[in-house]
Structures are given as C-alpha cells and as structure tokens.
Amino acid sequence: MKKIVTIMLVIILTLSMTACGKKVDTKESNAPSGQSNEQTKDSGTEGEELEHVTIKLTYPGSPQKDEVMVEEAINEYLKDKINASIDLDPIEWSAYLEKTNLMMATGDELDMLFTASWYEYYTNVSKKAFVPLNDLIDTYAPKTKELLHPALFEGPKVNNELYALPTNKEIASARGLFFRKDLVDKYNFDISKIKSMDDFEPILEPMLEVIKENEPGIYPYYCNGMGLPQFNNLNDAVGSTLGVYNPRTGKIEYGEEQPEHMAMLKLAYKWNNKGYINEDAITAQESVPNMFATYMNYKPGKDAEMSTQLGVELIGIPIGKIKTTTEDVTGSMIAISRTSKNPERCMMFLELLNTDKFLNNLLNFGIEDVHYVKVKENVIDFPEGVTAQTSRYYPSSQWMFQNQFLNYLRVQEAEDKWEQFKAFNEAAEQSPLLGFSFDSSSVKSEIAACKNVGDEFSTSLAVGVMEPEEGVKKYLEKVKANGSEKIIAEKQRQVDEFLANKK
C-alpha cells in the first residue's frame, strides 16, 4: 500500500510540474514553410520554464485594419519561442505623448513603449518611469548587444545605465528637402544647386513662386508643425526645451538669438505671407501628396520610403552637414515601463526583434501573400490592386521596430540600401557631445514652465505665422521670467564637466 501511495504521489508531482511551466526550445524553427532556419535562431532562452504571458507594445501610429490578424500570426510564432503573446497598442501621433504620460503618471500597466530624445525620454528617465536595462540586456539580449553600434549602445545611457533600446539603423542625420519628382521634371528645376540654407531665398524661392502661380491645389512648401528653422543644424541639442550647444563658441546659447536661426524665421514669415506655406501648418501632423517641397530628416532611401507612403514619387537632397549626435542615436528607442510585470519577457521579445528576420518583417509588413508578395528573396511589393493607402496592414514604422537591417526592401527602394546606410554613417561628423545626457532633476520646474512658453511660441515662429523679431523678443522675455537662465547655467556646467572628463 505504501508503494502504491508513493507511486501515485510521484505521478501527481510530475504532472503538476509539467502543467506549471512550458519548456522553451528556440532552436526549433516554426516559421512558415520556405523560411530558413537562419531567420528563426534562438533568443537565448533554451531550456527555460516559462509561463505564458501577454505583453503590450505601445507606439505612435494609426491602428491597422488587420492588426488582430497579424497579432495572431505573431503570437502563434512566439508560442514556441518565448511563450508570450503580443498586444499591439498603436496610439495616434497627436495623442501619444499625452496618453502615455497619463498612463505612467497614474501607474497604469504598460510594458514596452516607444520613446526618443525628442519624445521626453530624458524627462521620463528622471521620473523613474523606465526600467534600467543593462542587466536585462546582458542576460536576455546578448546578441543584440553584439550587433549594436557602440554609439547606439552608449548614446542613450544616463549615469552609465541604459533605459531604452535604440533601433539599429542610421546613426547620423542630415537635414533634407524633398520634392515631388513630377513637378521638378515638369518645370525643369535644378534642385542640385540647393546645398545649404543660404540657397533657399535665391534658388528655392523662385521655384515656390512658379508652383504657386501654376499649380492650384498644390502647397509650394508644406510644413507639418516644424518649418524652416530645422535646417539650422550648426548646433547640438542639449536635453529638451531650450539651450543649444554651439561648438564654435563652446557655449550653451539661446538658438533663437543666433543669426542663422533668425534668418530662417524671417524667411518662413516671408513665405507664409506670400502664400507658399499651407494654412494648417501649426496643426498638421503628417505629410501629404499635394505638395511641391517639404522638410524631413534625410537618410539614404528616405525619398523611396515616403514615395510609397504618399503614393507620389519624391526626390530628396541633403542640406548641410551629416552629423552623429546623441540626439541621432536616441531618436528611436523602445523602453520597458516600471509598471510592467514581465520586463524579462519584454527583453526576450526585443532580442527576437533584433535577430529574427521572420518576426521583424511580420511585425513591419504583415503576412506574406496577404499584405505583401515577394518579388525577390529580400524585395517585396503590395499584392495586385493594393497600395499603401488601401493596404489593410501597413504601419510604416520600420524605423521604430528595432533592427532595420533585417527589413525587406520595397520594389521602389535601392537593393543596396543597407550598404548606403553604412556609408552614410561612416561619412558623418561626430558631435563633441556624443554620449552626453542632461540631468534635468535640479531644474525640473523651470523646464516645465519654459516648455509651456515654448508651446506658445515655437511652432508659430517656425512656420512663419508670427512676426519673428517681436515674437522672439517676447519669447525670450517669458522664458527668462520662468527660469531659463538657471537652465542655461546648469546645462553649461554639465557640458563643461562632460568635456573635461572626456579629454
């Protein structure tokens, strides 16, 4: 009788242990037929016992009609990888910051979320909203750590700790002008002569006048909340709100006081009064096809990407220098929220996004033969009769979702696009402040007050709605009354300390 009881207890205990966990063997590929094992290599979790969890990926963008279908395909694939399901949670760009900030402030459960230096990354780090990632990366994303360029891995660190994982893409930036090719060809414009912002008034402006006079319904120069001053890339951003580093003087300065910046503001004001700029420039969020010229950050292949998205062919040209700054390497990242119950599983997922070609492209482009068709092994197109505008799954967010070098190429894109990216990175001039991050903790209240002032003035000045000299004068008076001098002094102190330690 004792032997029978013992045997029964062993059986019960064995069954109990089997039910409690799932053994994850990531060496077995369960990609659809036709996918190679190389595309589904393990994420470093072989042999671990993992309970099933659902983790949410929150990012700015429009919800897709076939989002649930793609989620189901991703989750079926992840089951034998990390035994997790993904809940895709896109939030419209216009509402993203407000909603995610509110969720973090109220302690709502978040898992992974998009962040960037221009999207309050450092502010949220100071609020302790994100999980420190150094140990998580070492344990659950060793392959990602190997493949990231050192600048990408070091740039976002705060006090030697990483709080978000950057997208593996270009590590440099240039300002760019983008034109509709059909209109450039129609009027035989020579856009190659536009090399710097000094060429805008004598060369670009006459083109805008031709478009205004001859192309009704076309915006000569389209602004979507940014405007012309973005071309003043002589300075390096230092944190958010105000105060830029001028490498020519070694000082933190008000960018608005610099002659190059004022020249752009005056030109924007002139163009607005001439009717070259769209009337909704302050509130517009995205580019539109019925434009002649617009500003965007430049990188190789950007014109082809935007041509697909807008449905019209664009030509892009870089303006000014190619630079690598901390802002560039922190321009697209995914953080893990402090409220996440599964930070380890989040990092396992990010490791897969960086190393698993099938998963990366499934998230970015959807399901083969449903949302895209393969033209070549690494080149895809929309199915017959489908465009970017009619596709049921085309988030166009490849630059957000980790390793871009795994992405398929669209038929419109150069097949050597990723080689062009590498050459672009190598040609960049490195900022003296690369790796610097501003600790805003001692001036948080001043930054908040000055940000409110900036919201009142910056966009109106940038798109030429506000008279620049009077507008800048009022802006500077208001920010100085709200503690900007204290912010400038603190930024200067930290920059001087950083540069002294770097020598």
Quickly list its features:
2 domains; five-stranded mixed sheet; 16% strand; 18 strands; 503 residues; single chain; D-Maltodextrin-Binding Protein, domain 2; 18 helices; 40% helix; alpha/beta; disordered N terminus
Biggest sheet record: 5 strands, mixed
User: Which blocks of ≥5 consecutive residues have pLDDT under 50?
Assistant: 1-47
Percent of residues in helical segments? 25-40%
Structural class: alpha/beta
Q: Reading side by side through the largest sheet, how are the strands ordered?
A: 4-3-5-14-6
Question: What is the count of β-strands?
Answer: 18
Residue fraction in strands? 15-25%
The total of helices stands at 18
Q: Give the N-to-C terminal Cα separation.
A: 79 Å
Instruction: Just name the CATH architecture of the largest domain.
Output: 3-Layer(aba) Sandwich
The CATH homologous superfamily of the largest domain is called: Periplasmic binding protein-like II
CATH topology name of the largest domain: D-Maltodextrin-Binding Protein, domain 2
The first-level CATH class name of the largest domain: Alpha Beta
**Overall tally of structural domains:** 2
Please tell me what the overall shape is: globular
Protein name: ABC transporter substrate-binding protein
